[in-house]
Amino acid sequence: MKFKFLLFFIVLTVFPVFSQEVSNPEIKKIVQEYKDLHRGPYLKIEWFCDDGTQRDSKDPCPDRIGGIQHASYKPLTIKLQQQNHLFFADILAYTDKGDFWDANNEHSRLKQYQLNKYLESVDNGWIMEKAQYYRGSVQSEDEQEWGIDFFNWLLLSNTRIEENYFLIRQSLKDIPHSGDNQEAQQIRSLSKVIAEENSKFMDARTKIHGQPDKSDIQLVEDFIKNNKSDISKQELQKLDSLTRVMKQFYAPTDLNYFLQKAKKFPENSFLRNQLEKLGNQEKDSISPQNLIEEAANLMCEIRTELPYVQSTSDQLTALDISLKLEEIIFKTAPDWQPSSLLEQLDKIYALSLASASAGNVEWWEWNQVDHLLQPQHLDKITIEQLNKKLSLARSQVEWSTSMVKAIYGDVVEKYNGFESKAKGFIDDRVRSSLALRLGETVSELGDFIRKESQLSNQILNLNHTSSFRGLNPGYAFGKLIVVENNSEKLEVSPENIYVFQSPPSDLKPVAGIATVAEGNLVSHVQLLARNLGIPNAVLSAQNLEDLKKYDGEHIFYAVSDQGTIIMKEENEMTSEEKELFSKDKKRNENKISVPIEKINLRQKTVLNLTEVDASSSGKICGPKAANLGQLKSMFPDNVVNGVVVPFGIFREHMNLPMPKQKGSYWEYLTSTFAEAEEMRSHHIPESEVQNCQLDRLSLLCDAIKNISLKPEFINNLERGFQNNFETSIGGTPVFLRSDTNMEDLGSFTGAGLNLTVFNVRERGKILNGIKEVWASPYTERSFKWRQQYLNNPENVFPSILIIPSVDVDYSGVMITKGISNNNAEDLTVAFSRGAGGAVDGQSAESWLLDFNGEDMLLSPAREPFYNRLPETGGLTKKSTAFNSSILNQANKDEIKALAQNIRKTLPEKTEASNTGPYDVELGFQNNKLWLFQIRPFVENKNAKSSTYLQSISPKVNAQKTIQLQHKLAI
Questions:
Q1: In the chain, what are the domains?
Q2: Share of the chain above pLDDT 70, in %
């Protein structure tokens, strides 16, 4: 027993067992401690022998065994690896390749290695601040050798390459394997560090990060000359280093590099021939245009041919060449100054091709737009055609930047909890990519088109305002709030205008929105904004950065129906613009009344879905159940069975005595709104009135969640489950969908305001879910939205639609009109993998489906995670790659057929006036289409018809022609 105890003690000592995750505040302290330690995250130098043993630094591995020497990790470093899956200062040389690839954790360890390298470059070594001088901790030759072995192992699988092309190619920039320096990264890092230490350098740093070119060398030299007396010796050393690296980076391209690399490929092989062709050109005779176009084409060939290259070492060489070509294009792009409109389109195409070839866009995505972006060498082009080119080109910038966020967002978010500098990593990757050069060129085209169309965005004092794009018409006045980071927990105000990286999925009312990532056109947030006339626009990451200096300022913000955008400071508003927000105007705004005169509260037993139809909406139940019942009669094989809990059952329960109150739940609710009106009659500020209401409604909400369900209702519900699902309550997973009489009114959609309980199976959870759904109209978010737009928000009655879960492979929304082109004949669809993604505002795969022409990809999906619905209930998260589309052609054809059927038969089955457009939620499971909801697609008619908004977007002659040889100002 003594021996066993001693052995157990030794195991615990040598291999500590950690059971609790380390908190972010603790990790923050550890990071600071490591910065101050000579050995940082490392314990000591040891020999790591090939037989798996470790020896002291003075006791080398025997020659017959072999091994390498480097640092070992501190126990605390190992604890972070085991408990938090955090890998600081990873030494590659003795890391298992599969562990480092970390496929089961979305390649987190590899991404962390890259993020660590970034932090070290911008924060004086970060946790390695002092440990970077710890001699022998890392052996560069061992790291290089491991890197080569790792990529040779990784590239053995074509599936890995196809699914992770962008990540693999990006990792080549950070994992040692070729001895090449990343000069562009050094330039950005050094300029960032210098600007943080000397605020006078900030303008230069902004130029170097935003619009880098070789003139930056002179910029830095001038800064040194003009500020020499104020610069410390240490700062001067960094500025000299920056100048030196810039000169190396912007040195003339040595095309001999490609001749040397060509020798690594078999004779007469395709890539060798292409490399020799480029390398044999005279560097002084090749123009910037020809160099960029040839480099872009060669990058394309490399990506296309990579799976067919015979050896992994040749594949690795090809990828390194691709990186070199990207670098050449990046630094040469400013030297290509198009002299004509045609040449501008040529440049956009070449940069788009190169960006896609770099993996910023998936290959199938590029194939959707390649032929549309290629310049047609005609004599002239119309404004309409030119705008389509601009939209396509702008999409390539947006898709490219969203790829970086999608791949690295999870790791950056993880690190941001304890290291704020991590948030700069994504921006750094975007700025170092060809998306930056493409964005510059697209903005120039946008400025040209707006000038020719006599249109112009007026965005404060910003440049390149053509990268702003209006989504929903409307106008607002309020404080501008710029939100860079995660917005999900942000408390918003209805008085403010918000600029988001991406809006929260449960956004409360705001005055106006602008987003870098629009999510998708048919998310609940977008539908609410469109419905309620909230101005909404998309902008670039650089635009968001530029707007930060106006954060906290009061501004006027307007978006026209044609997408024209105005943002101006309060003191620049015209009298007409001020009049839009006069108190009298606010008082006279048209509010909507929830119709209650036809409501039937006598129906106090559950119904089958087949017992309701469109005529039941607002009477017995809400429009979700009523319209789905209508669809069930029209498409019986595509709609599940369902149980409807009508308004009357909710109202019956609200008549019960409310605990700790004098009367019933209903009496408490009505007195809440009566007290609010009494407060208003005494001129109490609306904010105080609303706070009082919210306090009372919060108490009501909690009380409803704990209400005792009547036994006769539970028995009745049990029969409904048996009749429709052939099981008792708890025998099958179901969705509980709130279905109120306030939804889908003529001018108010209420999309996504109330609760849906996802895939719940346990009996107790289903019964509690019913109470939670009943309570959801009284939550703060739901109340605030409807309070602004409804005259009688107290008369909201929730019914509940209960349907069995369908574990769809992908799901989404169809709008029976073209939103992006305002064409009533087209369709707009947005789909995400798994259940419920597109409506929650995810970056979904969106299409404009054309019955008479070519379908157009509006945006690809950029969500790495999605929901599946297990039979046991609840949600499970799965991950996905982006290398294939979500919808196949058969799916799109079936969606078109469905839309035609709905357009024809729904007015016949309901009311002749019900002509659409419609908002339909649907999904596919094993390629079978399932319908989950149909509702009117509501847009704000006041915003679309506003005289002011029409005045800021004058009519454009879309058929006006411009000569493609039209000379551009250089």
A1: 2-178 (no CATH), 184-212+214-249 (no CATH), 338-455 (no CATH), 461-587 (3.50.30.10), 607-804 (3.30.1490.20), 810-941 (3.30.470.20)
A2: 90
